[in-house]
Structure formats: structure tokens, C-alpha cells
Amino acid sequence: MNGKWVKASASAALALALFGIQAPDNAKAAEGDFKLTVLHTNDTHASLKDAPKRATLVKQIRAEKENALLLDAGDVFSGTLYFNAFSGKADLEMMNYMQYDAMTFGNHEFDLGASEEGHQALADFIKGAEFPLVSANIDFSNDEKFDGLQNKEYTSEYEDGKIYNGIVKEVEGEKVGIFGLTTEETPTISSTGDVEFSEYVEAAEEAVAAFEEQGVNKIIALTHIGYDDSLAWDNDLELAKVVEGIDIIVGGHTHTALAEPTVVEDGEEPTVIVQTGGNNSSLGQLNVTFDENGSVTSHEGELLSYDEVEADEEAAELLAPYTAKVEEMSKESIGVSTEVALNGEREFVRTGETNLGNLITDGMVTTAKKINPDVTMAVTNGGGIRASIDEGDITLGEVQTVMPFGNALAIMELTGAEIREALETSVSAYPTASGGFLHVSGLKFNFDPQAEAGDRVRDILEETEDGFAPIDEEATYYVASNTFTAKGGDGYDVFKAAYEDGRVSEPGNVDYEMFIDYLTGFESINPELEGRILTTNPFTDIDADNEFTPFIQNVYDIGLVKGTTPTTYSPNKILSRTQAVSMIVRALGLETEGKTSSFKDLGNMAEETKAEVAAAEEAGIVIGSNGNFMPNEQVKRAQLALMLKRVYELQNETEYDGDAADLPFTDISGSDEETIDAIAFLYEQDIAHGLADKFRPSEGTSRAQAAKIYSNFLNVIK
């Protein structure tokens, strides 16, 4: 291996500081014992921002631990713009700098197989690696791009930039065998082409036998099969149980952050399993002691955070040109524009349906169907939606800001009853904002927030070719989600149970990539609320299929409007000036206590409402005429436009200058300049569009229309 670092001698001081254990300065703790440190990563997914910090930790630990190996369990490919731009070259530069000792293949290493270049990027990665790659259950022989790269041996005479079933690495006179395994599920979740995968248990047994034949009794399985993934395929826990002779499993695929190693003791000797949480969230460190027979007699392990770590300067310099390109790319449009803001604001995505949540789940269904045509639904947690996207061209940077975690796709096999249980969990905290609130696609449901938590969900309808129909609680459905939620994150015990039953597969497609792939099927988008998630309300005069219903539901749920009676909303009734102002004050959360208005005509108005008018007056939102507010007059569409424009200006501390020349309306020429600017504001911000070439400035605004206008307005002012 090409050396770039000078490794200093081992020191007991670091061992004492990090692990609190007694140990002599040399590697042998007792006659016949052998100490080994395994540093490990998995599922880094081109998350290179903290790679220089990882390099610092690796350098520090190697300086203290002469017997240290650095291994990667696959899925270096795919996940961020570093991969989109450089197809693994940036990752390889970092791995070569850190002097990895070996790596196995993850399913995402095969993501480009269906591209015009096929697996050329993977072949180039292998050739450029200053370390060997190991796999005992992959056959590359049918793909000419890998000609001369694979040697199906277990050997101590290995070369960097080649693939072996396994390698024998000599560490201070001791032989350590390292072999690789990749999930057999890969052909169904990636684009493997002519690359073939064999059964993992048989491959592991052959590997152990081959090593033992060569006198190797310390064996590491470098795996990308998942810690506790579906037994329909493969996983590390099962591997440890059924294959004797494996001492350590350095795993990947399920992004399972094992804060402490798992020890499986079903066989004659224990097997220690480690894995990090993926996405370069930490560096794993495992210290083990072997006796003279190659059995693990003690171990300590932890996941090392980068939080307090300084970046390695040389690594940072090597990464800098790649980062500059990535930052430039983040400003580029994905080729799609949105005519409206996409709402990802915390208080909205954690309490109800948003147009952004709908788009994200629609994208998940679209991708999942390509993998499993039986997928009909998707759910994703609102806590995974971290920002909004402004009107206009959508950039890569915006998308990654919305979904910064790189959450991966999971497909769950659930009964209708389990879907109901999950939806109950989703709305259990309502109206309190909850990161577990689910956004949905392929279904819609309503719930009663006044009912006890756990008994709130009422109607659940699945989308069919003929429209929506009630779900069958005994039927089986395939539902896309993200792995965090599918494994029981945010308290979804029903999903966790399905995962433990082996009813969840993990294709691993990254959330923001699915979103982009879905959107690129459109030139522009203009998504509205669709009524996928509704609360039951007391209003008997609202038709569930009316275009305004989702908006009425939205403003009612967040407390902007009340009914005209306990059971009616009166959607066609014209909004009064008082009602319009009250909605604005509630939307902004303006302080009303102790406020007094100068208007002379508030009369017998409720004190609460007088205070709201006073707060709006003080903020400059309403002006009135001749000292009068005219509270009971209908609010004209032009007047409402003025009020909303003034709110926008109040929040942004600047005047809004609309482009009157671009307005299509033929009935506003008699309006003053400020009113025309206000109409332009509504039109340009996609809050209201009038009817064809008419804005109808002097007409009143119905309560139904107002609900839509205010919902759209809230997306603009956030």
C-alpha cells in the first residue's frame, strides 16, 4: 500500500483515556494474546463534508494503535452531489488518503449499471483504489468492464485495485482473514446488469473453510447485508448464528448505529458485530483481544463523533476542488420550476397536509412502483421535511436543504389494520406539532381531533383506478416509506413489528433523488392541497369534494376561522372587513392584549375583536375612512389585496413593487397605484388569480374564496 502517513508507536495513554482499560504498552496483553483495532465505516453515500475530520481521527488512532485496520462495508456510491458530479472519484481520493485496508461492495455501487456507460464508474473506482476490494458472493465475469479485475481466491498475495473473495492480512506477525458479502437482494434494488450474486451463507462457509485451510483463525466478515434486514434475503445476526468461525462482522446496508457492539454467542465461539449509522455520521472503532486459538476474549467498541474534531488540513485541501464544484452545482436548477411556494415550514408539515409533502410521497410511490409494481401508497414523516422551496426554478441546493438526511427508501408489507394503527400514531399528538406526522400518497383519511388519541382516525380511502374506496383492514398493501420511519422511528411500533417480521425491504433509493426524478417529468408544477388529510369538523354545509374544502379545513384547523354557527361555515357568505382582519391578526400572531383602536364605529363589537382590529390598525394593515373602520361592510377583493400586501411589507420591511404591465386584468384601470400593486402581489405570488381577464376588484370575497386566499398567503409569508 502506498504510504502517505507516518505511523507512530502505540501508546497505552489513549487506550486508558478512551476506553478506561488497563493494558500494557505492547500489542500482546498476555502470552499468546493478540490485540487488534478495527476502524470501520459503512454507507457513507458520498457524504464527504466531514471526511477530513474522519481523516483526523484515523490518523490519531493509528498513531496510538499500531495494530489498526480501516475497513469499509460498502455503499460509498450515491447520495449527494459529490457522487452526482464525480461518480465516486471524490470518495476514492479521501479513502486512498486515509489508506483503507479493504472494502466490500454495497448495492448502491451498482446504481449506474443501467446508464449508457454501464458499470464503468465502478470499474474505474476499483482500478484507482489503493486497497483491495473483497466479495465472496459476487461474480463479475460476465461484464467485460471488470476483465482482469477479479481473482476468486483467498490470498495473502493481493494487489491494490483488484477484487478478491478474501485477503489474508498480516498484522504484527498474525494472520487476519477478511472476506466480503453483499446482499442477494441487490439485483432487485439496483442495476446489476450481468453481475451475479450467490447465496451468502454458503459463500461465508466456503470463506471460513478457505481461511482455516491456510491456518488463519482470526476472521472478519466485511458485509453489506444489513444488521437485522429481512430474513427473506440475508442479515448479519443470522450470519453470526449459522456460520461458525467468523470472529467479527463489520456490517452495512441498514445504517444501524450500534453504539456498542452486538455479541452473538450461539456457536462455539462468539461473533462481534459492529456497524455505524451511515452517511459518514461517525467512525466506528472496535478493540478486540484474541487468544492463541483465535477466539475473541474481550472487546470494546464505540462510534466516534466528529463534533469536536478538527479537519485534517491535507485532506481538506484534497477535497476543496470537489466541494467548490458541488457548491456551484447546488445553485443549478433541476430543470423544473414551481408556480407556487412549496410549503415545508415546521408548523405546517408537522400538523397537516402540505403541497410539498404530497410531492415527496408521490415521488416515493413512483420510484417504489418500479421496484415492486404492487406498491400503491407512501407515507413519510413530517420531521424529515426541513425547509420550504420558493416559487421559481427549483435548485439542487433547495432540494437537499428540504431533505438533508439522505433517508433511504423502504417498502413495507402491511395490512389495512396496520395502516390504520400507523395513522392513529400519526395524529396522536395533534394539534401539537410532531415530527412523526405522516404525509401520504395513494390514500386519504380524516380524523377527529376531539376524540381520544388512539381513536381519532375515521375514514381511510385508498386510491384506485376508479377513484377512492375504503381500505380493507384484512387485505395486504405495499407501502413505501423511508427507512427511519419503517424501522419504528417516531414511535411507529407497528412499522417496527413489520420490520422485525421480515416484511420490509430496503431498496435504498435516496429521498431527494427520488423527488428530483419525479419532478423532472414536469416542466413546471403548481400543486395545491388535495384533501388527503382532513380533520372532521362540525360544518354540515361543506361538500367533501368541493375545490375549496381542503383550504377551509386548513384555516379551520390552524384556528384562523370559526363557523358562522356551531354547525355551519357558510362558504358562500361574503367576508366582512372585521372577519378579514381577525384572520390576518390570528395568522400573524399579533399581540392584542391591551390594544385600543382609534376607530369610532366599533360599537358593540366583542372586546376580543376590537383588540384584533386595534392590533391591525397599529401595524398599518388597515386604515379605514374618516375615522371609521366600517366593520360590517363586505371586504372588497381590492381591499383584501391591500391588507395582505401590507402584511407582506410589514414582514419583509420593504414596499412591494408589482409589475402592472404583466397583469391580464382588464377591469383594474380605475384603481389607484397602491391597489394595482396589491393586485399584482396576489397575482404574482399565486395567491389569487381572478377569473380569466377579470379581477373583480369591487366584488366581495366569499368565505370559501377567503380560505383559499389565506392558505396560499400563508405559504408566501411563512
UniProtKB/TrEMBL annotation:
Q: Which GO terms describe its biological process?
A: nucleotide catabolic process
Q: Which UniProt keywords apply?
A: Hydrolase, Nucleotide-binding, Secreted, Signal
GO CC, alphabetical = extracellular region
- Chief subcellular site? secreted
What the entry lists under InterPro entries is as follows: 5'-Nucleotdase_C, 5'-Nucleotdase_C_sf, 5'-Nucleotdase_CS, 5_nucleotidase/apyrase, Calcineurin-like_PHP, Metallo-depent_PP-like, SLH_dom
| Domain SLH, first and last residues per copy | 535-598, 599-658, 662-718
Places the protein is found = Secreted
Question: What Pfam families does its record include?
Answer: 5_nucleotid_C, Metallophos, SLH
What's the domain of life for this entry?
Answer: Bacteria
The leader peptide range reads: 1-29
Q: Indicate yes or no for the key word Hydrolase.
A: yes
Please provide, alphabetically and separated by semicolons, the GO molecular function terms listed in this UniProt record.
hydrolase activity, acting on ester bonds; metal ion binding; nucleotide binding
Gene3D superfamilies membership: 3.60.21.10, 5'-Nucleotidase, C-terminal domain
Query: What's the protein here called?
Result: Trifunctional nucleotide phosphoesterase protein YfkN
Organism whose genome encodes this protein: Bhargavaea cecembensis DSE10
Q: Which gene encodes it?
A: yfkN_2
